[in-house]
Amino acid sequence: MGSSKPLAAVLLPVALLALHAPITTAANSNLFREYIGAIFNGVQFSDVPINPNVRMDFILAFVIDYTTTTNPPSPTDGQFSIFWQNSVLTPSAVAAIKQSNPNVRVAVSLGGATVSNTPVSFAITSVDSWVQNAVSSLTTIIQQYNLDGIDIDYEQFQVDPATFADCIGQLVTTLKNNGVIKFASIAPFDNSDVQSHYQALWSSHGSVIDYINFQFYAYDSSTTADQYVSHFNDQIANYPEGNILASFTTEPTANSVPIDTALSACQTLQSQGTLYGIFIWAADYSSNQGFNCPSSNQPVQTSSQLHMLQMASSKLIAVVFLSSLLALHVPMTTAANSNLFRDYIGAIFNGVKFTDVPINPKVRFHFILAFVIDYTTATEPPTPTNGQFNIFWQNSVLTASAVASIKQSNPNVRVAVSLGGATVNNRPVFFKITSVDSWVKNAVSSLTSIIQQYSLDGIDIDYEQFQVDPATFAECVGKLVTTLKSNGVIKFASIAPFDNADVQRHYQALWASYGSVIDYINFQFYAYSASTTEAQYVSHFNDQIVNYPGGNILASFTTAPTTTSVPINTSLNACQTLQSQGKLYGIFIWAADHSRSQGFRYDTQAQALLANAASY
């Protein structure tokens, strides 16, 4: 991941990305990432300053599917070997840095520019053999070192873009489905061949790529801050909806974008609400400078990490980031059109299966298991268990193997579980605790067990009755979500309020103090009356934009046989209006159990609407 790269001014047309599943443009966040271990100068994890208020990813550089037993080194068709300084950056070092810094994760980068001064090219024997070998060898390395994710940094290619996309896409999907990694990133730069390969990957498998480590420092040294920002905006177009990180290099070179220029551009990006994070190439070089910026003597880690902490504290803004110590909110624009479709499933016990539900490959699809509840039915009536969650969905049908199978066969699918719900055995479910600390401790422990057993991706909060005040509810749920994210147990969290005064007080208190860790708002618009018109539905939606500012609010309807809810056609018409206004982030349905009797007609229509949006 060096700095001397041939640049190209012409980017591939956005048309290449037409098949990519839309997500909103990333907003400000506090992700800081640093490559480490490539230069073999003895740099250690513990040498690097770590701000506890950022999410910090170390990225080991590199593992490469090459062997040095030949001269020159030659490709091994997906059989990866370690090429970082693993005599220093050992498994025990990984464990120690994560143990002492709960905000730290460690990933490994695949590829890089050279091995033993020979260019590394992406070369395969066949797609199947490369993927099989890569999954096997990487799983061994990742598990040996207890790593959390991978980064893709191939920079030369002996295959066409479609083949590269197929190989890498299958690799990432398989490692995620197997629970081997929690996240994946790509590291392109502005070269026409590089861009064609990575944009093909983004087009077909963007849904499994979490971050884009774009090598902005590979532009030339005359680049101004304004030009840097312009280049950043170009990549937003090239990788639509991606979490694009700004970057700079601390490598001693006269050919790269100056650090001060990059940091100035980062300030501008942050002011515009588009600074998702920053990465540095590389800690090895930074250590030679005492982790100080050469031009200003300002610590580069501290300087870049501070950019992600200089956030407005207004309760009217929020964005997702992980840090149990960080209470600041980051500016976020109102959610734009996106293709997220969510469907609750399993509450009615009528045998509905994941495979019964039509899945449009052009949407991001979330199943939400309904429910887990911290109640026991060992008593009559059922009673609260202070955060000890039990399964109340139909898990005899929606099994752990069923979860694995649906995700394996549909790379756009994730599966979450909802907490709470309205009733258990026809008795109201209340949010009730013994104490904040005991509830959070029990909830983290019991949910972690369930989530890991079923290989789930996220949680949804759907408590609807409360025996605590709003501040206590906010503290409990906020700490729960923050901890599960910080521990790498979940990737996302949502809330499911509706327009009831007490419900809104509790969820708005949660949003005000912990909105930064809430990814989606499943607002139950169908809970309005059956006389609701399309215009009123849109008006209600706009009300919730005010109530949950900066939130990714989903429209919704119910397929339950009822005459008291908003009619489905009214909801779908309102969704079309919201989409035309650029506000339709997604749609959720309650519930697949009911939809089955209708042949999933409306699930199909909703997904088609999201998949075929005219503009994003």
From TrEMBL:
UniProt GO molecular function: hydrolase activity, hydrolyzing O-glycosyl compounds
Coiled-coil annotated residue ranges, if any: none
Signal sequence, start to end: 1-26
InterPro entries: Chitinase-like, GH, Glyco_hydro18_cat, Glyco_hydro_18_chit_AS
PROSITE patterns: GH18_1, GH18_2
Lineage: superkingdom: Eukaryota
Domain GH18 stretches: 30-313, 343-616
Species for this entry: Dichanthelium oligosanthes
Biological process according to GO: carbohydrate metabolic process
Name the UniProt record assigns to this protein: Chitinase 2
Taxon lineage: Eukaryota, Viridiplantae, Streptophyta, Embryophyta, Tracheophyta
Keywords, sorted A to Z: Glycosidase, Hydrolase, Signal
